[in-house]
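hey
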């Protein structure tokens, strides 16, 4: 994942989508699916389609509409697609997925969502044995392991590779004769299965199934590989039973996933409404209006307003055409960048005690600017409620977070953060409240590592210190 330095947010590193159907324009269906997953990656996109013999790949930098100017024209019945945020320093065209390779066992196109914790160690071993790498991303380790496997079938080669990699990975892969979906033993990143009229679909989120009028079937289980071919759908549990330990990233519900998706059976929209309700139950603030920092805090703000009876108001207008704003050299220019994207409504906020809802605070650089803008517009008091616990640890399972020392909650108390961002009150949702909000998922099935440092998959020491996998 990549960090947004202006809005002080993390972003999903990528989204994956795949179609197996002999009766539709596969490339167009993949394109539509990726369009619905655009929120999961906005720096590059790619589509690979195959007829079982040849592969055609179209890819480019930027949003999907910028990256894919012309769809693949190869008549095909299988396709996989990818939208991506790059990790720091790796927004390189070489790293655009899907990765397409031809090897002795056939041809494959791989789309990967997640981050491998043992990728660097595997890559060093493979390079010592003579393997050549063309990109700087961990996903290329996967295709090398598949190509070097001694298993007889491509599906068995994929399973063999999946047993060797660790960390977060949801994969969609086309082979010569099948479309394959794979989810890691912890299920850190989501992956679901859907059905078209005459075929099947894999998607990071269920909202993309709706985009092509596919019927949702189920979510892929942690440690499961699902194979789709002309004979239908079959499932294989490739992981050793003792290694399967579900730990879905709870930030999918807090921020990453689109509100109209269901992730592992839990409605994302409902979970965010519940977070707002739980925030009210934990604070019981007396205020004049409830508002959000758009758009990520809006649903939780509605939940707070409904639970409290305090009116919801839109006190900030977002400029949706300002584009991405990259790291600014100083605080003054960062403030100008925030003001380009958000503008307060004085007649709404003036003289008001405001409950301000946001989903998270990473470094605190933006929260203070927004509070300053509201008070300049006449806000009497600002009570900030955050619909997640405080982020105190880096993530190593698919989020390119700041090193731990840059996370404000790792080095400051709640009172210190309150003073730093100049709010009158500050409250983070408790872990217990978060679990109540995500009520359809057992707490033990969620990953809270960014809150408590409990990493369910071992993280190499160099990664704990903030060293990234990328070799650029």
């Amino acid at each position: 994942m990549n960090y947004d330095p202006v809005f002080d947010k993390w972003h999903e590193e990528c989204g994956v989508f795949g179609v197996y159907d002999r009766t539709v324009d596969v490339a167009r269906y993949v394109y539509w699916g990726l369009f619905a997953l655009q929120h999961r990656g906005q720096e590059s996109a790619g589509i690979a389609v195959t007829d079982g013999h040849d592969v055609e790949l179209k890819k480019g930098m930027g949003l999907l509409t910028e990256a894919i100017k012309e769809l693949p024209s190869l008549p095909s019945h299988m396709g996989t697609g990818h939208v991506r945020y790059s990790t720091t320093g790796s927004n390189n065209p070489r790293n655009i997925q899907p990765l397409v390779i031809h090897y002795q066992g056939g041809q494959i196109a791989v789309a990967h969502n997640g981050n491998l914790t043992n990728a660097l160690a595997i890559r060093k071993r493979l390079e010592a044995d003579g393997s050549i790498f063309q990109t700087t991303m961990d996903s290329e380790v996967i295709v090398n392991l598949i190509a070097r496997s001694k298993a007889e079938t491509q599906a068995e080669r994929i399973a063999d590779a999946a047993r060797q990699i660790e960390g977060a990975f949801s994969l969609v892969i086309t082979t010569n004769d099948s479309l394959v979906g794979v989810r890691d033993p912890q299920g850190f990143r989501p992956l679901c299965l859907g059905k078209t009229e005459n075929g099947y679909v894999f998607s990071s989120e269920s909202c993309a199934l709706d985009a092509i009028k596919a019927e949702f079937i189920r979510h892929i289980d942690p440690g499961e590989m699902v194979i789709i071919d002309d004979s239908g759908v079959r499932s294989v549990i490739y992981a050793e039973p003792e290694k399967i330990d579900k730990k879905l990233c709870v930030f999918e519900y807090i921020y990453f996933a689109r509100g109209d998706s269901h992730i592992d059976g839990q409605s994302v929209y409902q979970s965010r409404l519940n977070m707002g309700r739980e925030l009210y139950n934990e604070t019981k603030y007396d205020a004049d209006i409830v508002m959000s920092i758009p758009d990520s805090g809006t649903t939780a703000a509605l939940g707070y307003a409904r639970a409290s009876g305090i009116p919801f108001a839109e006190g900030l207008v977002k400029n949706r055409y300002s584009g991405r704003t990259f790291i600014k050299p100083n605080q003054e220019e960062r403030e100008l960048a925030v003001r380009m994207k958000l503008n307060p409504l004085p007649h709404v906020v003036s003289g008001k005690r405001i409950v301000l809802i946001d989903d998270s605070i990473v470094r605190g650089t933006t929260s203070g600017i927004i509070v300053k803008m509201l008070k300049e517009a006449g806000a009497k008091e600002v009570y900030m409620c955050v619909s997640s616990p405080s982020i105190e640890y880096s993530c190593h399972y698919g989020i390119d977070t700041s090193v731990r020392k840059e996370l404000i909650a790792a080095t400051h108390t709640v009172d210190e953060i309150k003073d730093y961002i100049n709010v009158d009150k500050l409250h983070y949702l408790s872990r217990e409240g978060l679990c109540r909000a995500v009520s359809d998922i057992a707490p033990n099935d969620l990953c809270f590592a960014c809150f408590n440092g409990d990493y369910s998959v071992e993280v190499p020491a160099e990664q704990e210190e903030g060293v990234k996998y990328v070799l650029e």
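The domain at 2-247 is CATH 3.60.20.10 (Glutamine Phosphoribosylpyrophosphate, subunit 1, domain 1). The mean pLDDT is 91.
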